[in-house]
Design goal:
It is built from 22 helices and eleven strands. The protein has 733 residues and is of the alpha/beta class. Among the domains are: 135 residues, no CATH class; 238 residues, 3-Layer(aba) Sandwich (Rossmann fold). Strands 5-11-10-6-9-7-8 form a seven-stranded parallel β-sheet, with helices on both faces. The chain has a four-stranded antiparallel β-sheet with strand order 2-3-1-4. Helix 2 packs antiparallel against helix 12, helix 3 packs across helix 9 and helix 7 runs antiparallel to helix 10. The protein is rod-shaped and about 170 Å long.
Length: 733
């Protein structure tokens, strides 16, 4: 036996999963146990969160928000008066047009105009952007991006559902700046709208003005030729005597040719504008095409990309996706521009062919008329040329003068419903909300931290955990009990017992009741053959073996059984301290044949059935002595002399001394201290005892907080009127 016992230390560790059941269900009682156990942590974190909320409420700079409300009616047309009866392709999409105007209001151009108008470069918080490099009238690309980002971050533009009302709000630490900025955004948007339409009208007017110069010269030349012809032929006036179908047709065709020329000039103007491939110019000339919706879609995507890129950077997946969508929309815009250019080219060439045909027909009629009456025909031709040139010039000149006015009249109607005013109170900080949020935020963090600590804590705390991990029955749950270290013995003349011997000193306490429960569990564990030799052990020291062994021995002695309590921990046994006995003689001297029956002591005068054998002096070879033949013979002798022998042994995982005794005991009780014993330690202890051939009766859960036991609902009083003078079941001392 001496050769086999030490070999137990070389066995591999037994993994926890080998004995644990597959899947433990978390019950409300488990949650309540964790909350009770970690209540101080949760409370401290909740108070810390509340303190953070109070600090935030007291130190946050007040933020004011001012709002201006405008009404936008995007029902106006961008047509500059060049439609000339063309088909209107504009779809009825007022919501889309309104969103387009809102995006324009959010544009960088409007933002910079408002910043310039209010000189926000020198007002907080925007002035902080120029802390390293003061503003000198020029913005670097980085400063421009940061300035626009800060401005747009303080701006909120929203459309009231199912209305044309737009709310423009601005946040700033200065209420006056907040008010001025909200109004400046609206004003900048209105000015930008007018400037855009004026520039479009100016571009078209410039081109038409150049065309009118040529028409004016042609009209003057035709008028001069007519006058010269009249003077040369001395023609004062003519009637209709020579009127015929030819002259009537000549007049009609001449009028149609004038109209064809005017139509060709207009379509040539549109065609030349289409060749510039300028989307804004094309939208103003042909507003009824799909190009308008594509431009709006492009504007929406660009706004989304700018917002995401400023927040997450250009490599953000959504930014890349928006870049691809922008490329697709740009391709559609290019395709639509190409289609419009082709359409305008076809219309122009058609008008040119029509003009050529009319000119050819007019030339033919001229020849015919000349043949009929050269003088009369020539007169009419010159007259009609002069009149048509003058009429064409006058018509186009009127269109040119009306284009700018028409564009302004058809522009978006913007009406300021409510101008922003100075806000009376800040919107931030919301002190009550901050404090409440801080408290509940800290509470949630505390609960999460408690759950995390509980998850990381691998110590055993309740009987349910012990049974689930080790598959051992729980013989008893010894509650946490507090003892008064200065408590006197209840009867005079008794030895100086340690206060943790509660089965004798405080028999009506919860702790004493727990040891009596353990006694009953031991008696019921084998009804046919009561266990006589009980070995009390644990995984490591200071888990309550000596205290449990002493109280269990007293509990059996209270039944008037002859009980022998033996301290077999020859290295650090403390049984003599529990009963205030001398340790000069004991088990080690008996096994060494240095003492006899005088080593057995009866520490309690009113309990003569209890006999205590201390460990004695520490021998040089405790393991070999306990595994000797002499120890076996001594156990056999005790079986004949005593009803119950309780062996207070050494911890299994610390030394291998108790393994030799475990094979000779009738029952082995494994002590588990709540919150101290770890799961792997219990499994390893069970496995080592099993390999040694020990008969394990079950586990005793020591130093338990009964509030953590799911099937108990203790508070401060025990249900059977036992006073709860409970505390830590002291470990081996």
């Amino acid at each position: 036996m001496q050769g086999t016992v030490p070999a137990q230390k070389t066995q591999p560790d037994i993994p926890v999963a080998s004995a644990a059941p597959a899947g433990l269900v978390v019950t409300p009682a488990d949650v309540s146990r964790v909350l009770i156990k970690r209540k101080w942590l949760i409370l401290i974190v909740a108070l810390a969160g509340t303190a953070i909320g109070v600090y935030h409420a007291l130190t946050t700079t007040p933020l004011y928000e001012a709002m201006s409300q405008v009404y936008i009616d995007p029902g106006g047309s961008n047509n500059l008066g060049l439609g000339m009866g063309q088909q209107n392709y504009m779809f009825d999409m007022p919501e889309m047009q309104l969103q387009t105007q809102v995006q324009i209001m959010r544009s960088d151009t409007v933002a910079l105009d408002a910043i310039d108008a209010l000189d926000l470069y020198h007002k907080p918080p925007f002035s902080q952007l120029f802390a390293k490099k003061p503003y000198d009238g020029q913005l670097t690309p980085q400063q421009r991006a940061a300035l626009i980002g800060a401005f747009e971050g303080a701006t909120k533009i929203s459309v009231l559902p199912n209305t044309g009302l737009v709310n423009v709000s601005f946040k700033n630490q200065d209420p006056v700046v907040a008010k001025d900025a909200a109004n400046a955004i609206v004003e900048s948007y209105m000015q930008r709208d007018l400037r855009a339409r004026y520039r479009g009208s100016t571009r078209v007017s410039d081109w038409l003005g150049k065309q009118l110069v040529g028409l004016k010269k042609q009209a003057e030349a035709n008028q001069k030729a007519f006058s010269d012809y009249v003077q040369k032929h001395n023609i004062v006036s003519t009637g209709q005597p020579g009127s015929s179908l030819v002259t009537d047709s000549l007049e009609t065709v001449n009028q149609q040719l004038s109209q064809a020329k005017a139509d060709r000039i207009v379509k040539e103007a549109r065609y030349k504008m289409a060749q510039t491939r300028n989307p804004e110019l094309l939208v103003s000339v042909a507003p009824g095409t799909i190009l308008s919706s594509l431009r709006q879609q492009q504007a929406d995507l660009m706004v989304q990309r700018a917002q995401l890129q400023s927040k997450f950077g250009p490599q953000y997946p959504k930014v890349k996706e928006l870049n691809q969508q922008l490329e697709s929309v740009q391709g559609d815009i290019d395709t639509e521009i190409t289609n419009l250019t082709k359409r305008f080219a076809e219309e122009y060439h058609t008008a040119l062919q029509t003009e050529d045909l009319m000119q050819s027909r007019l030339d033919g009629l001229k020849k015919t008329a000349y043949q009929e009456n050269e003088s009369a025909a020539q007169y009419d031709i010159l007259k009609h040329n002069a009149e048509s040139s003058s009429a064409l010039y006058n018509a186009l000149d009127m269109k040119l003068q009306e284009s700018g006015i028409t564009a302004g009249m058809n522009s978006n109607s913007v009406d300021v419903v409510d101008s922003a005013t100075v806000p009376p109170s800040p919107i931030l900080p919301q002190k009550r909300t901050d404090v409440i949020f801080g408290f509940f935020g800290g509470l949630l963090v505390g609960i999460f931290a408690a759950a995390l600590l509980e998850y990381m804590d691998d110590t055993l705390k309740t009987s349910e955990e012990v049974e689930a991990i080790s598959q051992l029955p729980t013989l008893a749950v010894i509650p946490h009990f507090a003892v008064k270290k200065s408590a006197p013995s209840p009867r005079p003349g008794l030895p100086n017992l340690l206060p943790d011997v509660v089965a004798y000193l405080m028999p009506q306490s919860l702790g004493a009741e727990g040891y009596r429960t353990l006694r009953s569990a031991v008696l019921l564990s084998a009804v046919d053959r009561e266990p006589r030799v009980l070995l009390v052990t644990s995984s490591f020291a200071e888990e309550g073996k000596s205290t449990t062994a002493a109280n269990l021995a007293i509990s059996f002695a209270q039944r008037q059984e002859k009980v022998l309590l033996v301290d077999t921990d020859l290295r650090r046994g403390t049984t003599h301290l529990k009963f205030g006995l001398s340790n000069r003689r004991g088990l080690s001297t008996i096994l060494a044949k240095e003492s006899g029956s005088e080593a057995y002591e009866h520490p309690l005068q009113d309990m003569p059935w209890l006999t205590v054998l201390t460990r004695g002096p520490i021998p040089p070879n405790p393991g070999e002595i306990l595994a000797s033949r002499a120890m076996e013979d001594l156990l056999e002798q005790w079986r004949t002399e005593y009803d119950r022998i309780i062996l207070d042994s050494s911890p299994v995982l610390a030394v291998s001394d108790s393994l030799a005794l475990a094979t000779q005991a009738d029952n082995v009780l494994i002590l588990v201290r709540s919150g101290v014993t770890r799961k792997k330690a219990l499994l390893r202890t069970k496995e080592w005892l099993r390999r040694a051939g020990a008969r394990i009766s079950g586990a005793v859960i020591n130093d338990v907080d009964l509030r953590l036991e799911n099937y108990y609902t203790y508070s401060r009083k025990y249900g059977y009127s036992y006073q709860s003078n409970n505390g830590a079941a002291d470990g081996d001392k």
